[in-house]
DNA sequence: GCAAGGTC
C-alpha cells in the first residue's frame, strides 16, 4: 500500500486536519523530537487505497544567517554584509531536529501533500519541507506527479475536505519572495546594527543599552513613540473661551447647555458674545430631536484586538499577554490565540460554546437569557483564512487559572458572549435652545436595552440624567451665563494600545511579531513603559530617531516597510525576478548605509548632548597590563573596562557584580584580575580582563574566566582549582571558589550548579593528588580544633568530595548527586569516563604526564 | 551580540 505524507505548519493543525480527514479514526503517536505528533489512517487517494501519515513542523524549519566568519564583529566591516558576505540556511531550532525528524517519517513515502498555512510564509515552509524530504521519498514514479499543495481558508470540515479534493501545487514565486524578505532583513538589519553599536559604544560610556539595534520593523515602531514625544514637546498651550449657560424649569430641572460655537480663541470676541447672551433673561426651546441609536456588539476576537484590550484595560503587555494566552490554549481553556480572523466559521457551534458558560456565576444570567431567548447572529467579520477567532473552549474558575490567566480568560469569554448578544440601544435626545441670537444644545442619553454591554459593563452607556420632557417654543429661565477661560492640552504619550493600532495600520509586523517588536524597543532601552502602559521614549530612543530624521528620514518612516513589500509582491506574483529585486533593493540600502556612515557626525552631534564620552565615564577599578594605569569600570550596559591611556575597551560578563580581585595579576599579561559574582546563585569566579576577550590558549574561547583557563601553573586556573566532572552537565568541571569561605562551595564552570561544602572550615585547598576510584582531585580541609566535625580529634583531612565517607555529611550533594554517575547506582558512565578534570596533564584518564612544568607550558601555549 | 518571520 502506498503512503501519502502530509505536513501542517504546527502540531495543533496536524491534529485537527487529520481528525477531519479521517473522520476521527486516526491513530496518533509522538515524534522523536518531542514536539510533533504523527497521525495515521487509511483511505482513498486518487483512486487507490493508501495509508495517510500526517505530521507537522513548528513554523519555519530553516533560518538565514551569515556564514560563520562574517559573524565576527571585530573583523568584518558591516558594509560587507550587503553583498560580499555569503549567507547560509541553518536549522531554525536545532533542538527540534526538524530535518532529521521529517526525513525519518517521510522515508519511503510515495506522495506528499503540503498543508502549510496559506500565506507566503507557509508557501516558503513548503519548500523547506520539500528540501528536507525529497532525498528520502520513494522515487519509482518518474512520470507521475507526487507533490501536492492543499489550499484551505479555514479549519472546517467542508473547507478541509474541499482542499483535499482540489489539490494544487506549491507556489515557488511566493516562497521566493519570502527568501528575499529574509535576506533583505538580515543584511540591512545587521549592517546598520553592527555599525551603530560599534560606533557609539566605542564613544560613549553611559548609553545603557547593550545593543544599538536597527530594523525595518523595530525602528519605525520606535519612530511612532518619538513622533508623539515631539508633538508633546512642541505643543504650545493656547487659551480659549467658552460660554456656559445654566437654565432651569421649575425647581428640579436644571440643565447645563453647550454652546454651538463650541469655543473662540479671542477673549474680546468671547466677551462680545457673552454680552449678546446676557441681554436675554430666558432660553427658548427651538427643537427637540430624539434619535434611537445603537452601540454595535463587538466583532469576534482576533489577536491584535486581544493585545490592545489586554494592554489598555488589563494593564498586561503584549509579550506577557501572549504567554498567558498560550498557556490557556495548551491547557484547553481557549482556542488558538494567534489569528487575524474576526469571523466565526459557518459551522461553528456558537450555542454549544455558550452553554459551557451557563453556570459561571460571573455571567450565567446573561448566558442563560441568551440561550432561552435566542442568540444574535454575530457581525460579519474578516476571514483571513488562518484560525477561527479566539473563544473560550471550556468553563473555568479563577482559582484554577491564577490571576492573569483568569483576567485574560474572563475578557475573552465576556467578549465571546458579547459577539452573540444584541446591540446596545439607547435614545439620544438633543434639545436646541436659543438665547438671544446665540444657539445652545443639551444632549442626553437614555438606555433602551443594554444588550452586550451587560457582559461588557465597561462599554455601558453612562447613566446620565434623562432630559426633561419639553416642547418646542417652551421657555426656560436663564439662571447663569459665564465666559470660561480654558487651555488646550498637549497629547499624552502613546499608549501601547495606540501603538499596536498604528503598527497594524501601517503593516509593521504581524499579529505574532508585534509583541516582539514592542518588547525589543523596551529591552534596548529606547522606551520605557509608564503608568497606564504609555510608552515614553528614553534619551537614547529620541536621539536615534532625531538622528535618522536628520540624515535619512526613510530609515525611520513606516513607509519603508511597505515600499519593500511592494517589491517583494512583484516576486510573489511572478512579475519580477528574485535576483533582480534583491539586487535592486540591496543596492538602494547599501547606498543609504554608506550615506549614513558618511553623515554619522549629524547623529553624533545629538548624542554628544545627551551622553558622556567613554573616557569620562566610570570609576577606576583594575590596572591595565599594558600601561599599568587604572582602567575605568563602566557599569552601564554593556558593562566593560576602558583604558583611556591605551584607548582600549575590554568586555566583561554581564548581569553580575564586578570587584577588584585582591590586586592579583594574570601571569600571562599582567592585567589585574577582577572577580565576577552573580546575585542570585551566589556563583563567583575571577577573570583576567584581557584574556576574557583574547583567549590565551588554543582550547579556550572568548568569554572565559580563570575557572575555565587551562594555564598549567597559575593558582587561579581551572587546572589548579578544578575538582571533578560536573554533577549535572556534560562538559562542565566543578571548580573550587576560593573566595567563598566560610560558606565554602564549588561551582560548575559551565552551568549553574553550585555545591556547598565544609561550612565553617578554616581553610580549604585543592590537592594535586587524585581520587583512586573516580579521579577527582582530592581536597584538603582544615578545621579549627573547637569546631571540627571530623572524627576523633582530627582537624585536617584530605579526601575526595564525592567518594570519601568522612566527607559524606560535609558535602551537600543531595539532589545533584542523584544525577551524578557515581551516585546513580550500577555502572553508569564510570567505566568509560572518569571524573577527573581531564584537562589536568597529570590526570589518569587524560594526557600522559609531561616531564616538567616548562614542557606543560609549551604544550598549552599557542 | 545583529533582522523578522514562523512556533513550543
Automatic annotation (TrEMBL):
<dbReference type="GO" id="GO:0003677">
    <property type="term" value="F:DNA binding"/>
</dbReference>
<dbReference type="Pfam" id="PF23546">
    <property type="entry name" value="Zn_ribbon_TOP3B"/>
</dbReference>
<dbReference type="Pfam" id="PF01751">
    <property type="entry name" value="Toprim"/>
</dbReference>
<feature type="domain" description="Toprim">
    <location>
        <begin position="3"/>
        <end position="153"/>
    </location>
</feature>
<feature type="region of interest" description="Disordered">
    <location>
        <begin position="376"/>
        <end position="397"/>
    </location>
</feature>
<feature type="domain" description="Topo IA-type catalytic">
    <location>
        <begin position="171"/>
        <end position="593"/>
    </location>
</feature>
<comment type="function">
    <text>Introduces a single-strand break via transesterification at a target site in duplex DNA. Releases the supercoiling and torsional tension of DNA introduced during the DNA replication and transcription by transiently cleaving and rejoining one strand of the DNA duplex. The scissile phosphodiester is attacked by the catalytic tyrosine of the enzyme, resulting in the formation of a DNA-(5'-phosphotyrosyl)-enzyme intermediate and the expulsion of a 3'-OH DNA strand.</text>
</comment>
<dbReference type="GO" id="GO:0006281">
    <property type="term" value="P:DNA repair"/>
</dbReference>
<dbReference type="InterPro" id="IPR003601">
    <property type="entry name" value="Topo_IA_2"/>
</dbReference>
<comment type="similarity">
    <text>Belongs to the type IA topoisomerase family.</text>
</comment>
<dbReference type="GO" id="GO:0006265">
    <property type="term" value="P:DNA topological change"/>
</dbReference>
<keyword id="KW-0799">Topoisomerase</keyword>
<keyword id="KW-0413">Isomerase</keyword>
<dbReference type="InterPro" id="IPR003602">
    <property type="entry name" value="Topo_IA_DNA-bd_dom"/>
</dbReference>
<dbReference type="InterPro" id="IPR013824">
    <property type="entry name" value="Topo_IA_cen_sub1"/>
</dbReference>
<dbReference type="InterPro" id="IPR056452">
    <property type="entry name" value="Zn_ribbon_TOP3B"/>
</dbReference>
<dbReference type="InterPro" id="IPR023405">
    <property type="entry name" value="Topo_IA_core_domain"/>
</dbReference>
<dbReference type="GO" id="GO:0005634">
    <property type="term" value="C:nucleus"/>
</dbReference>
<feature type="region of interest" description="Disordered">
    <location>
        <begin position="818"/>
        <end position="851"/>
    </location>
</feature>
<dbReference type="InterPro" id="IPR013825">
    <property type="entry name" value="Topo_IA_cen_sub2"/>
</dbReference>
<dbReference type="InterPro" id="IPR013826">
    <property type="entry name" value="Topo_IA_cen_sub3"/>
</dbReference>
<dbReference type="Pfam" id="PF01131">
    <property type="entry name" value="Topoisom_bac"/>
</dbReference>
<dbReference type="InterPro" id="IPR000380">
    <property type="entry name" value="Topo_IA"/>
</dbReference>
<dbReference type="InterPro" id="IPR034144">
    <property type="entry name" value="TOPRIM_TopoIII"/>
</dbReference>
<dbReference type="InterPro" id="IPR013497">
    <property type="entry name" value="Topo_IA_cen"/>
</dbReference>
<protein>
    <recommendedName>
        <fullName>DNA topoisomerase</fullName>
        <ecNumber>5.6.2.1</ecNumber>
    </recommendedName>
</protein>
<keyword id="KW-0238">DNA-binding</keyword>
<dbReference type="InterPro" id="IPR023406">
    <property type="entry name" value="Topo_IA_AS"/>
</dbReference>
<dbReference type="GO" id="GO:0003917">
    <property type="term" value="F:DNA topoisomerase type I (single strand cut, ATP-independent) activity"/>
</dbReference>
<dbReference type="GO" id="GO:0006310">
    <property type="term" value="P:DNA recombination"/>
</dbReference>
<dbReference type="InterPro" id="IPR006171">
    <property type="entry name" value="TOPRIM_dom"/>
</dbReference>
Amino acid at each position: 500500500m502506498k503512503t501519502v505524507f502530509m505536513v501542517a505548519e504546527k502540531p495543533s493543525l496536524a491534529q485537527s486536519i487529520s481528525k477531519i480527514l479521517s473522520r476521527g479514526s486516526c491513530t496518533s503517536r509522538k515524534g522523536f523530537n518531542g514536539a510533533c505528533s504523527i497521525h495515521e489512517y487509511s483511505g482513498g487517494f486518487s483512486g487507490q487505497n493508501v495509508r495517510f501519515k500526517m505530521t507537522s513542523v513548528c513554523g519555519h524549519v530553516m533560518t538565514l544567517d551569515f556564514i560563520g566568519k562574517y559573524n565576527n564583529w571585530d573583523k568584518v566591516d558591516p558594509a560587507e554584509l550587503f553583498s560580499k558576505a555569503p549567507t547560509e540556511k541553518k536549522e531554525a531550532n536545532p533542538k527540534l531536529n526538524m530535518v532529521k525528524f521529517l526525513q525519518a517519517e517521510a522515508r519511503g513515502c510515495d506522495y506528499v501533500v503540503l498543508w502549510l498555512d496559506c500565506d507566503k510564509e507557509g508557501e516558503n515552509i513548503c519548500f523547506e519541507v520539500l528540501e528536507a524530504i525529497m532525498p528520502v521519498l520513494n522515487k519509482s514514479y518518474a512520470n507521475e506527479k507526487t507533490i501536492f499543495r492543499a489550499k484551505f481558508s479555514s479549519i472546517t470540515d467542508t473547507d478541509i475536505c474541499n482542499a483535499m479534493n482540489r489539490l494544487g501545487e506549491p507556489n515557488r514565486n511566493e516562497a521566493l519572495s519570502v527568501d528575499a524578505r529574509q535576506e533583505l532583513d538580515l543584511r540591512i538589519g545587521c549592517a546598520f546594527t553592527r555599525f551603530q553599536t560599534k560606533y557609539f559604544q566605542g564613544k560613549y560610556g553611559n548609553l545603557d543599552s547593550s545593543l544599538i539595534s536597527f530594523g525595518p520593523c523595530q525602528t519605525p515602531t520606535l519612530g511612532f513613540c518619538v513622533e508623539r514625544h515631539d508633538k508633546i514637546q512642541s505643543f504650545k498651550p493656547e487659551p480659549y473661551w467658552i460660554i456656559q449657560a445654566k437654565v432651569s424649569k421649575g425647581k428640579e430641572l436644571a440643565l447645563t447647555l453647550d454652546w454651538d460655537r463650541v469655543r473662540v480663541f479671542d477673549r474680546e470676541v468671547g466677551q462680545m458674545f457673552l454680552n449678546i447672551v446676557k441681554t436675554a433673561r430666558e432660553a427658548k426651546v427651538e427643537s427637540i430631536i430624539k434619535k434611537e441609536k445603537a452601540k454595535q456588539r463587538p466583532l469576534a476576537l482576533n489577536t491584535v484586538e486581544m493585545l490592545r484590550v489586554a494592554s489598555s484595560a488589563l494593564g498586561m503587555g503584549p509579550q506577557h499577554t501572549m504567554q498567558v494566552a498560550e498557556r490557556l490554549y495548551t491547557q484547553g481553556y481557549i482556542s488558538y490565540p494567534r489569528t487575524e480572523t474576526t469571523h466565526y466559521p459557518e459551522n461553528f457551534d456558537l450555542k454549544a460554546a455558550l452553554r459551557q458558560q451557563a453556570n459561571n456565576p460571573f455571567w450565567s444570567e446573561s448566558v442563560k437569557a441568551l440561550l432561552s431567548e435566542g442568540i444574535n447572529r454575530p457581525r460579519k467579520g474578516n476571514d483571513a483564512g488562518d484560525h477561527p477567532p479566539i473563544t473560550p473552549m471550556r468553563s473555568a474558575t479563577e482559582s484554577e487559572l491564577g490571576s492573569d490567566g483568569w483576567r485574560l480568560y474572563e475578557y475573552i469569554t465576556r467578549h465571546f458572549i458579547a459577539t452573540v448578544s444584541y446591540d446596545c440601544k439607547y435614545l439620544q435626545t438633543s434639545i436646541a435652545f436659543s438665547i438671544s441670537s446665540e444657539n445652545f444644545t443639551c444632549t442626553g442619553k437614555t438606555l433602551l436595552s443594554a444588550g452586550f454591554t451587560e457582559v461588557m459593563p465597561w462599554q455601558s452607556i453612562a447613566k446620565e440624567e434623562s432630559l426633561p420632557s419639553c416642547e418646542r417654543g417652551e421657555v426656560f429661565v436663564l439662571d447663569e451665563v459665564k465666559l470660561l477661560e480654558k487651555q488646550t492640552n498637549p497629547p499624552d504619550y502613546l499608549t501601547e494600545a495606540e501603538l499596536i493600532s498604528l503598527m497594524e495600520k501601517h503593516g509593521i509586523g504581524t499579529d505574532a511579531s508585534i509583541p516582539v517588536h514592542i518588547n525589543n524597543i523596551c529591552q534596548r532601552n529606547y522606551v520605557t513603559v509608564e503608568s497606564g502602559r504609555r510608552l515614553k521614549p528614553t534619551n537614547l530612543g529620541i536621539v536615534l530617531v532625531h538622528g535618522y530624521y536628520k540624515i535619512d528620514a526613510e530609515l525611520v518612516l513606516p513607509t519603508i516597510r511597505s515600499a519593500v513589500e511592494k517589491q517583494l509582491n512583484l516576486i510573489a506574483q511572478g512579475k519580477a525576478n528574485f535576483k533582480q529585486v534583491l539586487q535592486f533593493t540591496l543596492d538602494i540600502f547599501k547606498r543609504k548605509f554608506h550615506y549614513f556612515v558618511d553623515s554619522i557626525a549629524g547623529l553624533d552631534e545629538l548624542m554628544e548632548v545627551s551622553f558622556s564620552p567613554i573616557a569620562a565615564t566610570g570609576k577606576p577599578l583594575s590596572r591595565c597590563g599594558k600601561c599599568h594605569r587604572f582602567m575605568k569600570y563602566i557599569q552601564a550596559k554593556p558593562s566593560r573596562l576602558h583604558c583611556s591611556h591605551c584607548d582600549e575597551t575590554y568586555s566583561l560578563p554581564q548581569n553580575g557584580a564586578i570587584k577588584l580581585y585582591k590586586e592579583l595579576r594574570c601571569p600571562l599579561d599582567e592585567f589585574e584580575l577582577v572577580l565576577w559574582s552573580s546575585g542570585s546563585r551566589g556563583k563567583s569566579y575571577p577573570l583576567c580582563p584581557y584574556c576574557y576577550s583574547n583567549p590565551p590558549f588554543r582550547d579556550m574561547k572568548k568569554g572565559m574566566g580563570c575557572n575555565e583557563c587551562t594555564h598549567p601553573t597559575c593558582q587561579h586556573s581551572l587546572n589548579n582549582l578544578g575538582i571533578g566532572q560536573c554533577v549535572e552537565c556534560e562538559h562542565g568541571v566543578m571548580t573550587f571558589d576560593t573566595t567563598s569561605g566560610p560558606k565554602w562551595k564549588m561551582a560548575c564552570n559551565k552551568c549553574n550548579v553550585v555545591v556547598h561544602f565544609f561550612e565553617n572550615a578554616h581553610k580549604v585547598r585543592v590537592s594535586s593528588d587524585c581520587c583512586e576510584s573516580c579521579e577527582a582531585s582530592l581536597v584538603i580541609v582544615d578545621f579549627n580544633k573547637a569546631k571540627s566535625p571530623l572524627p576523633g580529634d582530627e582537624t585536617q583531612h584530605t579526601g575526595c568530595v564525592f567518594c570519601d565517607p568522612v566527607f559524606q555529611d560535609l558535602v551537600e550533594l543531595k539532589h545533584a548527586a542523584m544525577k551524578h554517575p557515581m551516585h546513580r547506582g550500577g555502572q553508569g558512565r564510570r567505566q568509560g569516563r572518569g571524573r577527573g578534570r581531564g584537562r589536568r596533564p597529570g590526570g589518569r584518564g587524560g594526557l600522559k604526564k609531561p616531564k616538567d612544568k616548562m614542557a606543560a607550558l609549551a604544550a598549552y601555549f599557542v
